[in-house]
Every structure is written in C-alpha cells, then in structure tokens.
Amino acid sequence: MSERPVRLTRSAFRLFRPIATRWMDNDVYGHVNNVHYYSYFDSAVNAWLVEEELLDIGTSPVIGLVVESGCTYFESVAFPERLEAGIAVAHLGRSSVRYLIGIFKEGAEIAAAQGHFVHVHVERATQRPADIPARTREALTRLA
C-alpha cells in the first residue's frame, strides 16, 4: 500500500469555489458520505469551465471525460457546513489534464479531503481523443 498523501494547505491551489452541503449529503453516521466528494470535485471544475466559456455542456465539439479519480479523507464535514473547493492543475498533457482538488471547511487553512481526477478530451461525435482546445489549455496553464 502506498503512503498516505500529505494534507495540503490552501497555498497548493490556484482557484477556490464555494460548495454548499445539502441535507441529503449526510449519511447515517452524521457526516457527508464519501460519494458526494466526487460530485463536489466534478461540479467545481465543470462550473469553472462553463463560467470561463470553455465548455458548453450541450454543444462543445470537444468535451472532457473523467477516466480516473481518487480521494483521501482527513476529517469529517457535515451539513450545514459551508465548504470551498480548491482547484489546481497537477499535469497538463496533449489531450488530458489531471486536476488536484482540495475540500476545505469555509476559511480553513488545511484540506478536510483532497483528491484528483483526470479529464481526457475527446471529440463529442466520435469519442476519440482530441487535443485540448487552445483557449482551454491557456486557462488550464494558469491553474498549473
């Protein structure tokens, strides 16, 4: 088994987005269930892509598909806590990008959880790998 990742601080991330916990996110143990963290990751990154006009969910000819993800949990969070998702780019390839995401309690200096996911860019019509579009690459470079 590999070593547990070092718990990251806010300085590891370039962009922060608010995340609202929901009543339904809590499980019977009284904390946000692990599956919801992946939704937080996906929502934070994709909302940023949409807001930056790098992704039109319905019509962009090149889209990113998640091909890998992972998460390490350090402390529990629960509804109704407010969270922040820190986003950084850990690796930028020709057709793929590896995002690093930290989930922070609002205003906290260290991540309650952190993880990653990899988007592989593909042609929407064929689902075949495609180069990351130039405008998207430029924006991702700013997060690296």
Give the SSE order as H and E letters. Answer: EHEEEEH
Main sheet properties:
5 strands, antiparallel
Structural class: alpha+beta
The helix tally amounts to 2
Largest sheet, order of strands side by side? 1-3-4-5-2
Rg (C-alpha, Å): 16 Å
Poorly predicted ranges (pLDDT <50, ≥5 residues)?
none
Strand tally is 5
Helix content: 10-25%
Mean pLDDT: 96
Morphology? globular
Descriptive labels:
single chain; 2 helices; globular; five-stranded antiparallel β-sheet; alpha+beta
Structural notes for this entry:
By secondary structure, this protein is an alpha+beta fold. Helix content is 19%, strand content 35%. The chain contains 2 helices and 5 strands. It has helices at 34-51, 134-143; strands at 15-20, 62-73, 82-92, 96-105, 113-123. It has a 5-stranded antiparallel sheet. A hairpin with a 3-residue loop joins strand 3 and strand 4 (96-105). The two termini are 28 Å apart. 25% of the residues are buried.
